[in-house]
Design goal:
The chain is 41% helix and 21% strand. The chain is an alpha+beta fold and 736 residues long.
């Protein structure tokens, strides 16, 4: 329990002490005729008053008396009384001996109570604990320096000075002024209060009272009926330690006998500001009142990291958050949230980024069956941004409960040669590692018109720039146009026409050996020959494009009769197998490698490598199996593939399951969703049906992020502006 104390600085108390000592010396001169009283009987009053001032309100124990301090005070008083034992002198009457004995018993009683308080303080016995608390209460009241040394002072005044009216009156007035009334402290306190009233135009008004705590850091405030604090308002409230601290208003959570406001603790008040700014409200704050923060508190709040980011404050870390998944209670309704929004929360002192993937409305009881509805957002952890490496580092822990959550700083992303996209609305890029993208295979999945082909063409350009040769199997005839700077159309057209001629010749080529009939073998041999030239180490050509539907290649389908036999034209799926197996054969001859040498791009893959239940003939089943087998073997020889399709269900899973890097754009079909769950999890799979154009969920070894992330893909024109700073040379130019 605290005794009343005027709040003065240590320097002010020291100045007052010096003035009081000077006044005591002057009174000694007036009463006794000497500046310094004797150490004998007539000096007891002086040294008792000095001890009361020194040990009392001014220096050592200005607020409350600890049991150890009470012991020291009682021992000092006892020694002073024993030094002037009136029982040893015959010149003192009974009243003097009675006052001496009473004073000594008082000092001894304080000593005993203080000792018992110390002894029983930590006792496990409840009765003894209560006794210790009671002893502490009496020791604080009876053992403080003003009380115990006042007893000694009054004994000395009556016993040694009652015979002299001048001494009796002078010393009595001195005790009443210096020890009882303390005039200098009162004058300074009034002066300080007047200065605060007149020296500033600041108005501190009451907002409401604290009605509850949500530990840690959250306070619940019932507002005054005429007050309505807006979110982000700075307030002064009671901290967990009972001292004034700053708080920021979050949101209103209901109405029951007044509006209920939630606020978040910020930094504590410095001692000087606490005494100056909050002195007139400190007592009310201790009892739970909340006040407007004066303008001069803005400077204090400016050093608090929460206040610095208050414009981006979104909500609080809610229950059920895990190491990889964050649940956020959204406290604002004026922000445009959507799937993919990037947010940040502090784990320790490290700001960690998360990406919102889902949201849900919730309801809870506030008070007396009053309810409130609110929104909870679900977010997946991305990591902490490493600016030097341009990637995200993993943080293997989670934020504290009620930790504030902020929107990531919104900036316009600048185009970069290394990045395939950015987190929506932020500067944080996602880059592509081209080599593992190829060697471990990749897939681009999404419905028609969401940007699959442009993404694939961008990836092809990156492969070419990295020195990887690319063979595009394109049924759309789009790649030759978009990649024209890398494509020698004149020479490639001549090679394509040669293959077409070889294929046409097989329509009438009949052989007793069915396998040698038609033009399949000749077409495969010529394809391998052309690819051997294209894939030769050191060759300048980087891009070759085939449209499997443009080749008319024939296969003999029966034994000859009268030099005639039934002939069947190969399907695009079978042409795809020939090109894939020829590519693998050429790379096998070059030997094994860990580096990417060539990437096969399957545009409209559902037509080139169909699933077994989506084929038009048994020949397509066999062809797809052959293509898949070649892809499975290709990694050891630097061969990989890029699969692009809008119909995931119709593409062979033998190849799709080998695609380590996946770009998932907007998808509706259940089969595609189910397949993608294995890669990106249920959370991000649920996002796919709502993705905007040019947005994708990316995951795999080719991504710079460890986990699935939702990104905004590069715009084609911006990518070209950065990536093609100088126009690349065509194959024809490099050959000349």
């Amino acid at each position: 329990m605290r005794s009343e104390a005027i709040s003065l600085s240590q320097r002010a108390r020291l100045v007052i002490l010096v003035i009081y000592i000077a006044a005591l010396l002057a009174l000694s001169k007036i009463a006794l005729g000497t500046w310094l009283p004797p150490l004998a009987e007539k000096g007891v009053w002086f040294y008792s008053a000095l001890a009361a001032l020194l040990l009392g309100n001014l220096l050592i124990t200005p607020y409350f008396t600890k049991p150890a301090d009470a012991v020291s005070n009682a021992v000092a008083a006892t020694i002073a009384l024993l030094a002037v034992n009136v029982w040893a002198s015959s010149r003192f009457a009974g009243i003097d001996r009675f006052l001496w004995s009473l004073s000594l018993l008082y000092a001894l009683a304080v000593l005993v109570l203080a000792v018992l308080s110390i002894v029983y303080k930590d006792s496990p016995n409840v009765l003894r604990q209560r006794f210790a608390e009671s002893s502490f209460l009496f020791g604080d009241r009876l053992g403080n320096p003003r009380a115990i040394f006042s007893v000694v002072f009054l004994f000395a005044l009556v016993t040694y000075h009652r015979q002299s009216a001048r001494e009796y009156l002078t010393l009595g007035i001195a005790w009443a002024l210096f020890v009882g009334l303390r005039p200098l402290e009162s004058v300074l306190d009034v002066a300080y209060r007047l200065r605060r009233i007149w020296a500033t135009t600041r108005v501190i008004s009451r907002i409401g009272e604290i009605v509850g705590h949500e530990t840690p850091n959250i306070i619940l405030i019932r507002e005054e009926r005429d007050r309505h604090a807006t979110p982000g308002k700075l307030m002064i409230a009671r901290s967990d330690r009972g001292t004034p601290c700053l708080a920021i208003a979050l949101d209103h959570v209901g109405y029951s006998e007044g509006r209920w406001l939630r606020a978040l603790h910020l930094c504590g008040m410095p001692t000087d500001k606490e005494q100056d700014t909050c002195a007139e409200v400190a007592r009310h704050i201790v009892h739970g009142d909340v006040f407007d923060a004066p303008q001069d508190c803005d400077e204090i709040a400016s050093h608090d990291p929460i206040w610095q980011r208050r414009d981006r404050l979104l909500g609080l870390v809610a229950p059920d958050s895990t190491v990889n998944r964050l649940t956020i209670e959204v406290t604002r309704d004026d922000v445009d949230l959507h799937q993919g929004t990037l947010i940040e929360a502090d784990i320790g002192t490290c700001p960690v980024l998360y990406q919102i993937i889902d949201g849900i409305t919730k309801e809870e009881i506030v008070h007396q069956k009053n309810t409130r509805g609110f929104v909870r957002a679900e977010a997946k952890k991305i990591g902490t941004w490493n600016d030097s490496r341009g990637t995200f580092d993993a943080v293997p822990w989670l934020p504290r409960p009620n930790e504030p959550v902020f929107l990531a700083e919104s900036t316009e992303a600048s185009a970069s040669k290394e990045t395939v996209g950015h987190f929506p609305g932020t500067r944080y890029p996602v880059s592509i590692h081209v080599d593992p993208l190829v060697t471990h295979n990749a897939a681009i999945l999404g419905i028609l018109g969401v940007g699959k082909s442009f993404l694939a063409i961008e990836l092809v350009e990156r492969m070419i720039d990295a020195g990887i040769k690319v063979i595009c199997l394109d049924l759309t005839n789009q790649y030759a146009k978009e990649l024209s700077p890398y494509y020698d159309s004149q020479n490639e057209t001549a090679r394509t026409e040669l293959l077409q001629q070889i294929g046409l010749q097989g329509k009438t080529t009949v052989s007793q050996n069915v396998e040698e009939g038609g033009s399949t073998c000749q077409f495969a041999d010529k394809t391998k020959e052309q690819l051997a030239e294209f894939l030769a180490p050191g060759g300048q050509s980087r891009l070759r494009i085939y449209n499997p539907a443009m080749f008319e290649v024939w296969r003999q389908d029966s034994k000859p009769y009268n030099n005639k036999a039934s002939m069947v034209m190969l399907t695009p799926t079978e042409i795809t197998r020939i090109i894939t197996e020829s590519t693998l054969a050429v790379l096998q001859e070059q030997g094994m490698t860990d580096k990417a040498r060539c990437c096969l791009v399957y545009e409209e893959a559902h037509s080139l490598i169909p699933e077994w239940n989506a084929v038009a003939s048994d020949g397509d089943k066999t062809a797809t199996n052959g293509t898949a087998k070649a892809i499975l073997q290709g990694r050891k020889f630097g061969l990989g593939c890029l699969v692009i399709t809008q119909r995931t269900a119709n593409v062979t899973k033998s190849i799709l399951n080998q695609c380590n890097t996946v770009f998932a754009l907007r998808v509706f079909d259940a089969t595609g969703m189910e397949f993608l769950k294995n890669y990106i999890g249920d959370d991000y799979a649920g996002v796919l049906c709502n993705l905007e154009d040019r947005h994708a969920v990316i995951f795999g070894r080719g991504s710079s992020c460890h986990d699935p992330v939702l990104i905004r893909l590069n715009d084609r024109d911006k990518f070209l502006k950065v990536f093609r700073k100088t126009e690349p040379q065509t194959q024809q130019e490099t050959s000349t």
